[in-house]
Amino acid sequence: MAFGGRTGGAAVDVVVVGGGVIGCAVARKAALGGLSVVVVERGRPGAEASSAAAGMLSPLAEANEPGAFLDLLLRARAEYPDFVDALRSETGADVAYSGAGTLYVALREEDEAELEERLHWQSAAGLGVERLTADEARALEPALSPHVRWALRFAGDHQVDNRRLALALWSAAARAGAEFRLGCDVASVLREGDRVAGVELAGGERIAAEAVVLAGGCWAGRLSGLPRPLPVEPVMGQLVSVETLPPTFRHVVDSPRCYLVPRADGRLIVGATAERVGYRRAVTPAGVMRLLAGALEIAPSLADAPLAETWSGLRPGTPDGLPILGRDPDLSNLLYATGHFRNGILLAPITGEIVGALLLGEDAAVDLAPFAIDRF
User: CA-CA distance, 184 to 315, in Å (whole number)?
Assistant: First the structure.
């Protein structure tokens, strides 16, 4: 069921609610397919969760078991190189796609059980995880603490600069023909019978559309006019960065308490808390202390590294930790692209492909049943 070819006085084919990396990826795909697209964004595209992330592309550190979610993450990681090349061709942007992989380190006795379990099921699934002794881990990353017991290596992981990615996707969507309405809040989804008819902005203006995509992150469920509850809640994440020149690490280094993401310019990002405190967004002494304690546990030499930046963002969480993707079962021209929690950067390209394909009347590349809204 395609949404192209405007009928009934509709002004546009698609309204995308939300201009983060997810919304921009959907808008880019739909616009490249010839649909007229309006993206409505309450602030600056990519300024919320997209810019607050760390840019890790690390499926094996995120999933806790085999299944549809891990399959989606792995597929997204595999498609990233072509996606980055396409963005560079369309915009000239360099999103700093790089990485030597991820080291997941055990520093305490209780950490070892978690790593053993992860090693067991990932090895059984043939996922290419590698067990390293403490000496092998420190040979790869000499700055690691002498208290490291052993580590897992996920050699296929990469990273991007998420802030550059957000700008590149905004540019790519706009160059493809998507119109951006910035500084606008969507108040409600408009309905006519068994179809969505568009959206109404907070000031009363209406935008008629053949389809509406909800990509508003943790704000998506606050709209009126939705056919069912949308169980997406904000999960605040605090992050800090320190300056390390020359760079202290090549790998992303993860532990059960924090992760370290090295940037080529010498910044080392330390993240992230996961706090369910509503729509409050703040950097707190307690949060920064937890992050820095975790960082120093991994690499004591960071004690003298200058603090560069602190920030926070609100990630869209769902009750089961999985994204919400696909059509509404009752309103087929209402589509969901939200709830990505910690994996919005990794899943942005494949979400754009999936939801964009549905808008263009094509089949989704994956089975969307595990991510459907009616699973709740």
Answer: 20
CA distances from 93 to 12, 18, 89, 261, 353 (A): 28, 22, 8, 21, 20
Q: For the chain, give the longest Cα–Cα distance.
A: 69
Residue 196: how many CB atoms within 10 A of its CB?
23
Task: Render pLDDT for 228-246 as a digit per residue (tens, 0 to 9).
Answer: 999 999 999 999 999 998 9
CATH code assigned to 102-155+233-317: 3.30.9.10
Q: What digits encode the pLDDT tens for the residues 138-194?
A: 999 999 999 999 999 999 999 999 999 999 999 999 999 999 999 999 999 999 999
d(CA 142, CA 152): 16
With 0-12 CB in 10 A as exposed, 13-18 as middle and 19+ as buried, what is 140?
middle
CA atoms within 13 A on the CB side of 288: 13
pTM higher than 0.90 for the full model?
A: yes
Whether residue 329 contacts residue 192, with contact meaning beta carbons closer than 8 Å, is answered with no
Residue whose tokens read 């993401």: 261
Calpha distance 247→245 (Å, rounded)? 5
The residues that bridge with 232 in the sheet, in sequence order, are none
For the chain, domain boundaries: 12-52+164-231+320-375, 102-155+233-317
In angstroms, the Cα distances linking 368 to 72, 163, 197 are 10, 28, 24
Query: What's the whole-number mean pLDDT along residues 353-364?
Result: 97
All residues at 6 or more sequence positions from 57 whose CB lies less than 8 Å from its CB, including other chains? 76, 77, 80, 99, 157, 158, 159, 160, 345, 346
Q: Give CATH for domain 12-52+164-231+320-375.
A: 3.50.50.60
C-alpha angle 127/125/141, rounded to 5°?
A: 30
Q: Specify whether the CB–CB gap between 208 and 198 falls below 8 A.
A: yes
In the three-class reduction of DSSP (H, G, I as helix; E, B as strand; rest coil), residue 232 is classed as coil
Q: DSSP 3-state assignment of 197?
A: strand
Token couple for 35: 């649909």
User: What letter does residue 252 receive in the DSSP assignment?
Assistant: E
The CA-atom distances, in angstroms, between 9 and each of 5, 116, 157 are: 11, 60, 47
- Taking the alpha carbons of 263, 83, 355, 77 in that order, is the dihedral positive or negative? negative
